[in-house]
Amino acid sequence: MVGKGLAIEVEYDHFPKARAALPVEMGKILYIIAEMIIADAVRRIHYPPKTGREYRHRGIVHIASAPGEAPATDTGTLAASLKAERSGKLQYDIIGVEYGAYLELGTRKMAPRPFLRPAIEQTSKKIAGIFGKAFKAVVR
User: Fold this and answer.
1) Beta partners for 27?
2) Which of 44, 69, 66 is nearest to 53 (CA)?
3) Is 91 helix (H, G, I), strand (E, B) or coil?
């Protein structure tokens, strides 16, 4: 009945509260995303069957990764070393053993065995949904 003099006013003042909560929530979300990337990278290292050369090391048969595949796990050190480390207010770095960079990027004598970049690409497909859910939770 707007034409008859009825007026309805809706006040929504959650934005100041949301603005204050957003950096905290963003930090949590970024940590969750970093952990998702790490979980995917670890899965790539441990589980897909590798197709590289087969050799015996200390009496144990090991199948290496082929160029382009995630590295094959041997001792589990690489996968266990991956951690999300806060490096800024809204920034996390994924750190691990030094040789992980050589595997990821390759060297003059070894083709790359990427495990982080594919994990980042896979996780990036889910990021919009994660941020959307978090934003909805903050503005409620």
Assistant:
1) none
2) 66
3) strand
Cβ burial 58-68 (10 Å sphere, 16+ → b, else e): eeeeeebbeee
* Cβ contact 103:71 at 8 Å: yes
Single pTM value for the model = 0.81
Which contacts of 87-96 are long-range, i.e. CB under 8 A and separated by 24 or more positions? 89/23, 89/27, 90/23, 90/26, 90/27, 90/30, 91/30, 92/30, 92/31, 92/33, 92/34, 94/34, 94/37, 94/38, 94/41
First to last CA, the chain: 29
What are 13-22's pLDDT values in tens digits? 666 777 777 7
Q: Which residues pair with 93 in a beta bridge?
A: 85
| Matching residue, tokens 């897909």 | 48
pLDDT digits (tens, 9 = 90+) for 55-111: 998 898 999 999 999 999 989 999 999 999 999 888 999 999 999 999 999 999 999
Between 42 and 140, the more confident residue is 42
What is the domain partition of the chain in residue ranges? 13-139
Q: Cβ atoms within 10 A of the Cβ of 40, count? A: 19
